[in-house]
């Protein structure tokens, strides 16, 4: 407590114990306590989009076209989410490292600057996409038949950009201080609201696609309110303070150095979807774009639990790295990579073996179901081992390794997948687009493993720890 007073922070005993358990609790139990709520939160969070698509796909008379149109908006949603990751996932690991050092003042500076960044991002994204939404949607793969649904959905969704930024970007600061259950609740509240509002607004009030979008932003607003309330209360180890919201160049630089990696990971997902949808529209048509709308949702269901595990373990590694407890860092990594790999093998394996289980959930169109089932086993093949890369990527972020994390983020999507998706259809037709995914996945996992083995000893060497943090 004396050290806290030197930093000028007032922390109660309960909150002190909340963050300190990251460095003292039994590692296996701690990982379960942190990871399970994070997994639940990630699964719940993905329901925002998936529940929308399920209901939209079953709108009588035009559900298949509406589903395809909403799928075209997915890249915009990913860009918005990427900016929240820039501030949240870029800052939260740094704040956790500072908590491990007992430097609460610096942790609150990082949190405050993240709030400032999210406010700026919200204004810019809302204005830009609102003005240019029509040409952007056409560029993302919309056709004259689907543009009306895409435009209806995104026009309303953009009004809630600030809610998405705060709900997603700041929630990482709750889990980063050891409050995984509270972080889960912020997502759960919004998801339950969304699930209730969707059928009411879509079918009862006859709002269709617009109802789905409105339900989503109302739900995100409630989640954002929950997050802000917690981070300004005495229950939070670190709090949002007005004096730290004003941007500081050094602090923003540190956030940006680490945040650029998750930003690229998510924003390039948008670029990937643009490339895939455009190619599918060119070589196949609306029906093929519809398969991607379904498979991108299924991909989320597979990847999201793994993201939950990695995000749950990440604060543990960051805190113990800051505290110099490297054996706990290594133990956490071994457990994380084992769970992540097992999850992708099982979940992707089910999609490959029984694709019809997933396809029928999203649409009743027999032709779309048949086409989706034929291409899904090819598309998801490489995802079976993708848990390895996600675990390694999360570890680099947790330890503040901005440069290595950036290389991995660029590798799979920008260096491999996008060029393959553009090139292969010229030789294989539309199936080349689906085959680009597994080729990129297997290659990027292999490179990531090699890179991790080469650098792991250096990263975790105690006498180089301070230098490594400085590099980030």
From TrEMBL:
Belongs to the multi antimicrobial extrusion (MATE) (TC 2.A.66.1) family. MepA subfamily. It comes from Faecalicatena orotica. One of its GO terms (molecular function) is antiporter activity. GO terms for cellular component: plasma membrane. This is Multidrug export protein MepA. It comes from the Bacteria. One of its GO terms (biological process) is response to antibiotic. The chain crosses the membrane at residues 30-51, 71-94, 115-141, 153-174, 186-206, 212-231, 252-276, 288-310, 331-353, 368-392, 404-422, 442-460. It is a multi-pass membrane protein. It is found in: Cell membrane. Keywords: Antibiotic resistance, Cell membrane, Membrane, Transmembrane, Transmembrane helix, Transport. CDD domains: MATE_MepA_like.
